[in-house]
Amino acid sequence: MRTLIDARPMQSGDLAACVELARDDGARGPLVDAALLADLLRRHLLIGRVIEERDGSLRCRIRGCGLSALVDPDAVATARRGMQPDFVARLLVDAAGASSPLLDRRDATRLGPRGTREMVVLNFVVDAAASEVAETATSMLHRAFIEAHSGYALAALTAETRPWEGKYQSYRASLCAMGCRESPPDPRHGTQLFWIEAADVLTQRYHILQPLFARRAGRLDLTPAQRDVLELASLGLDDGRIASTLGIAIDTVHKRWRSIHERALELMPMLLDGGHAKAGNGSEHGRRGTEKRRALVEFARLHPEELRP
Description:
Elements: E1 3-9, H1 15-25, H2 34-42, E2 47-55, E3 60-71, H3 73-80, H4 87-95, E4 102-103, E5 117-126, H5 131-149, E6 154-161, H6 168-177, E7 181-182, E8 192-197, H7 198-202, H8 210-213, H9 224-234, H10 239-246, H11 250-267, H12 269-273, H13 290-302
Parallel strand pairs: 5-6
Antiparallel strand pairs: 1-2, 2-3, 3-4, 3-5, 6-8, 7-8
């Protein structure tokens, strides 16, 4: 039976399967607390992607997943000085409180000025038992990571290696290969922080993480609701799946598309009219219908800053 594997944003309903994968990989503590993770997703404090396999009968299985978060820079700086072992676990525990070190990914007012945004990779895992799709799922998860984090104009990206997890050795090797800096391993837990800063990446034209650190201002200034629709469309989802993923009516999706079109027509008319001049009777010979949407989606893929606060 033919199967389809694709990437999409994580939903609360995915967490049971994601936690099972993480536990199989050796994760423990808050990283396998589905209730905590669901609460943080609901509060827009996590950035999550899943790799989903669907067969001809529309049955779905999660084959891979990844979680990250925008984090208060002071919390990260403290951890890099070796003053907070088992950093990711502590971040998640503290995030359950009223004063969270994790920042709302949709709220520009909590992200600080451009150039100071810090992101932490919390965890990722691929279903190693599914050998027939593991390679594809791994490749897609790498691509999904870049797509999910592009456009934030990060100051730094931080990751933690944990020796009790199955991916420990290969993960550590890949972080070193990307040129990450490293703190001394924690003598009690064996965890270790690796990080890479904008200055380490932006001078290397072909570094794979360039899109995460590039500093370009968005032009459309979309609302969070509008960005959600455009981002899902840029991932290849049709309106039905966009509605399902966001938990809204399809009519609401259509309304959001209309508002996106209106915004683009106001601020970037050339994007939607295709550069055509008006006809003599005043009508426009620009793009229509699906062509407008295609132009917007392609623009968002090339300019991920439009999808970020």
